Amino acid sequence: MNPPGNPEIVPRPLGAPGSLSHAALDPAGPGFLPLASHLSATRVPPPRRARLGPDAFGVSGPGVRPRLVSVLRGEGTFVTTGHQPVLLLGPLYVLYKALTAIALSARLERTLGAPVIPLFWIASDDHDWAEVGGTAILDRADAPRTLALPAPPGGERRSVGSHVLDGPAMEVLDALPEIVPESEFTAHYLELVRDAYAEGRSMSAAFARLLAGVLGDRGYAWLDAARPEVRRAAAPLYRRLLSDWDGTVEAEAAGARALRVSGFEPPIPPVEDALPLFFDEGGGRHRVRRDGMTPPEAWLERLESAPEGFSPNVASRPALESCLLPVTATVLGPGEIAYWSQLGALFDALDVPLPSVQPRAAWTLVEARTRRILERTDLSAQDLAMGAEPAVQRLTREARPERVERALDRFREGAEADMTAIEAAVAEDVPGLRGAAGKMRKGILDATAELSRQVDRATRKRLDVRLGQVRRAGANLFPRRRPQERVLNPLSFLCRYGPGLVERVARETDGRVAAFLAGRAEDG
Questions:
Q1: How crowded is the C-beta side of 476, counted as CA atoms within 13 Å?
Q2: Are 494 and 210 in contact (CB under 8 A)?
Q3: pLDDT tens-digit series, residues 266-278
Q4: What's the CA gap between 36 and 355, in Å, rounded?
Q5: Residue 78: C-alpha distances to residues 50, 68, 81, 522 (Å)
Q6: Sheet of strand 77-83, all strands in order from the earlier edge strand to the far edge
Q7: What's the pTM value of the predicted model, to 2 decimals?
């Protein structure tokens, strides 16, 4: 039952039918990935010690630390998920990933009888500033407003997580109180933002602090991938990549071939003679490539002298997680499921266990006012999937005066028949006037179309309030013609509905995870 005034939490499919992610999640499909629904106490790999100490991790509360120590000693396991440290937590689905990992961990812990800790991997070594430095927040008029931090001068290809918030960033964030809705919860969330995004703090640290403030102590941990101890611990895996260059390239190619055999194009395109590895010598991250100037031996020497300069790419980061940590399962979105589907051969080549996959929960928050608009206009949420304009055009057509519409239709039909007869007679009797007859046809049809447009404008003016409401609903549910969860930041919803919204999404997410584990999920 939906509490009054709170949004409905409506499940949505994670992968479209026919997509690679849909096929990967099908228990009867090609088996690209092991699924969390197949996990049991007898199928989990034996526990193993981690290659990192507890000081490398952040925790959501004091009770997590002793459990974390046990897992790192080999007495338990992790469920991982992660994302880049996007401004103000980025789109809604970042929260959904974290809540899915938390729900799955609790259920697996009961099944396995050992500590299972949800771990959020902050991919702070990413260098995509355009993606990390901005976020879209629904303003008080239900319009997506983009907040974007200025890219650090000369840092466009540097790891984003280490960027330190400065004066220009603070000026951008100062606009937030004028954007988010006002309610009894607004001051609380604005204070969380001010506390997290303090001048002089790194993007990664700010992201982790705000995530902890929004989620509260839910027994999870996080790891910043750019920490020096993580980079150093990763060196043995990178050494394997560099020591068997041809084997690594072939393993990536084998994963791509397996997808093509099943009719799917590999999501990770090959880069000729390059490893799934980046190196930053101070000027930005660049792929590790083999050429005449930098042979594999030279890269190995660099690894020995400067391991902190290396970082994984999209293909090797999943293997790095399971190399450093005992990971039983990982929570992924549809794009991640797709590219993980081509990584099995690389995991095998690196002798790293491939964890089971749990799809993240996918939701649409349908607010009460949006639901009322849909009901008044006889629209479904899916009717707005291509934006509001198709629905606006349909409502306009349906509201046009029927008598005028019928008269125009009759006129068009008669004019077409009469003009056809006139043009035929002119062509036979006075062929020199065929051009004049054609202009006459065009003039009549243009005048008819213009009158039709004027009728539309008059109808829209009469419907102005209702059509404005439909546009607001479209901006809320499918902003920029994309699903709400992939565009909109959670802060507007949190300011309006408070911590209770997180609690409700957590409960719904736990039910979604339980259904997937039981083989009843409708994901995809």
A1: 23
A2: no
A3: 999 988 889 999 9
A4: 9
A5: 10, 9, 10, 25
A6: 57-59, 221-224, 116-122, 77-83, 327-332, 356-359
A7: 0.87
